[in-house]
């Protein structure tokens, strides 16, 4: 046997407890053929000396938005702007015709709220759509509001109202989406990510087109992708009564369809909003207000989607950020499991942002997987700590208490909502310090190895891929990341250079 590639001079952290370290990695047919002495005598078509670089399994981002992220880079960027005048200046003279689109608006830092009237002054009669950071809100101008006569607003729209405005702009063409996906794939690879789970295609808050899956199929991206399908595309079906399936997507496809490069993942459902827009559903109000956020839909409709999706064979990825949304999710999943037990369904709670202490045991008992975004707290931890107040701030985006309850934690970014770099997230999980230097839930800190595990084996498990991904184990797919330093001993994990990534045995230099 001749290997395709032999990587020598590695300091590999394999994440495989049976063999935690290795210096040489043999690759054949896109898979890891063996480590060290297992392949020492085998010849190789090519040998690459990594010069003592650190090698980890490729990072898996279990919740990201590739199309939205790519699209953002084609819009006017107003990230970090604090004055309405600055936003207007950047929007004025936007090239092209038709919609003027901007992104990165942060109402929390503005000198005054941006309004439809203000946008009118620079729109030259074109429709204007300024998306906020979170994807849960936007500001539009009067041209857009006139097409939404049922909505009364000064321009600021959240959740379903925002969805109504966005649907005027949609769909994007398959070609446009492919361009956006390729841009995002380039970005994520440069940060060491070799697989992404796309969190909700086909319809809903962040969809691009009802034909979105076609764009992924045609794009042939250099990363692995798993597609979560928005639950709003479930349709009533006339299945045999013995199947017990009342709603499905066309052809009855569900979680697991596809191959190792592109597959169908979970069914994505939304039960509340987000903390940036103050729409995450809480059991007690946001600090200093009487606002408790909002559920995404009627409880009846959300419960029906959870139960129907469960019966139709889907893994569920349920967006729940506030503790009230998590209560609802726990009840609905328990009901679905009691109707038909699916022990390895691996239903997920996307974000799982605010978890009261007594909710931990229920999450564990139901086998739910929190898919957390540590960089939310790095970017927004100061603000979130204020709006949660002293008692609740330590309960946000937990780490230690999930692990102590035997819960699998999956790492993710929600890119482009927050910084997508896994090393930034891993640093936060270990240090629990916001970008402003504030300690956010320091008792939830986990070790570097546990944080790496969340972003490799943990997220692989959340995507039903741990048998082929997540560790450098002979037989698994050859996905890895080559780093300039060891995160276990580094003082600045987020700054460690990503030297190369590998997907399916193809080494892609990043520097
Ligand atoms: Zn998301």
Rounded radius of gyration (Å): 23 Å
Oligomeric grouping of the chains: single chain
- Sheet/helix structural class: alpha/beta
The overall number of domains is 3
CATH architecture verdict of the largest domain: Alpha-Beta Barrel
For the largest beta-sheet, the strand count, sense and barrel status come to:
8 strands, mixed
Question: In a few lines, what is going on in this structure?
Answer:
By secondary structure, the protein is an alpha/beta fold. It has 14 helices and 23 strands.
Secondary structure layout plus pairing:
Elements: E1 5-13, E2 21-22, E3 25-28, E4 31-35, E5 47-57, E6 59-64, H1 66-72, E7 76-77, H2 84-91, E8 100-105, H3 116-123, E9 128-132, E10 137-140, H4 142-145, E11 156-158, H5 159-169, H6 174-190, E12 193-201, H7 212-219, E13 224-230, E14 235-236, E15 247-248, E16 262-270, H8 299-311, E17 316-320, H9 323-339, E18 348-351, H10 359-365, E19 369-372, H11 374-392, H12 400-404, E20 410-411, H13 422-431, H14 448-462, E21 480-483, E22 498-503, E23 506-509
Parallel strand pairs: 1-5, 6-12, 7-8, 8-9, 12-13, 13-16, 16-17, 17-18, 18-19, 19-20
Antiparallel strand pairs: 1-2, 1-3, 3-4, 5-21, 9-10, 10-11, 14-15, 21-22, 22-23
Helix pairs in contact: 1-6, 2-3, 6-7, 8-9, 11-13, 13-14
């Amino acid at each position: 046997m001749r290997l395709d590639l032999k990587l020598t001079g590695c300091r590999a952290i394999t994440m495989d407890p049976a063999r935690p370290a290795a210096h040489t990695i043999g690759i054949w047919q896109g898979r890891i053929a063996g480590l060290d002495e297992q392949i020492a005598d085998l010849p190789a078509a090519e040998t690459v000396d990594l010069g003592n670089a650190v090698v980890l399994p490729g990072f898996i981002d279990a919740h990201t938005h590739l199309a939205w992220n790519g699209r953002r880079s084609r819009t006017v960027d107003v990230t970090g702007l604090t004055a309405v005048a600055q936003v207007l200046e950047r929007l004025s003279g936007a090239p092209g015709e038709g919609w003027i689109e901007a992104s990165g608006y942060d109402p929390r830092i503005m000198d005054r709220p941006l309004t439809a009237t203000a946008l009118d002054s620079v729109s030259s009669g074109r429709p204007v759509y300024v998306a906020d950071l979170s994807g849960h809100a936007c500001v539009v101008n009067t041209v857009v509001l006139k097409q939404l006569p049922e909505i009364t607003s000064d321009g600021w729209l959240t959740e379903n109202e925002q969805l109504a405005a966005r649907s005027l702009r949609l769909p994007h063409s398959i070609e446009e989406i492919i361009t956006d996906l390729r841009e995002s794939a380039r970005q994520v690879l440069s940060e060491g990510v070799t697989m992404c789970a796309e969190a909700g295609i086909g319809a809903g808050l962040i969809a691009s087109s009802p034909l979105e899956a076609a764009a992924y199929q045609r794009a042939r991206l250099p990363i692995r992708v798993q597609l979560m399908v928005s639950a709003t595309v479930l349709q009533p079906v006339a299945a045999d009564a013995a199947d017990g399936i009342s709603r499905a997507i066309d052809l009855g496809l569900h979680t697991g369809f596809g191959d190792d490069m592109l597959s169908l993942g979970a069914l994505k459902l939304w039960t509340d909003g987000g903390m940036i827009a103050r729409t995450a559903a809480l059991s007690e109000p946001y600090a200093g207000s009487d606002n408790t956020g909002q559920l995404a839909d009627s409880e009846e409709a959300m419960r029906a989607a959870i139960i129907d999706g469960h019966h139709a064979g889907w893994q569920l990825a349920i967006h729940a950020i506030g503790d009230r949304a998590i209560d609802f999710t726990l009840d609905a999943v328990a009901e679905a499991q009691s109707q038909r037990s699916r022990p390895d369904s691996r239903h997920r709670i996307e974000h799982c942002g605010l978890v009261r202490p007594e909710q931990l045991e229920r999450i564990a008992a139901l086998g739910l997987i929190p898919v957390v975004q540590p960089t939310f707290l790095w970017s927004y931890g100061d603000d979130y700590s204020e709006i949660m107040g002293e008692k609740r701030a330590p309960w946000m985006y937990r780490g230690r208490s999930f692990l102590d309850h035997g819960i699998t934690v999956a790492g993710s970014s929600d890119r482009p909502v927050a910084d997508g770099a896994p090393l930034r997230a891993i640093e936060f999980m270990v240090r629990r310090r916001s970008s402003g230097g504030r300690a956010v839930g320091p008792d939830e800190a986990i070790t570097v190895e546990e944080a790496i595990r969340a972003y490799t084996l943990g997220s692989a498990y959340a995507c039903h891929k741990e048998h082929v991904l997540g560790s450098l184990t002979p037989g698994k797919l050859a996905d890895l990341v080559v780093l300039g330093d060891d995160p276990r001993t580094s003082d600045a994990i987020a700054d460690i250079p990503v030297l190369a990534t590998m997907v399916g045995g193809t080494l892609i230099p990043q520097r």
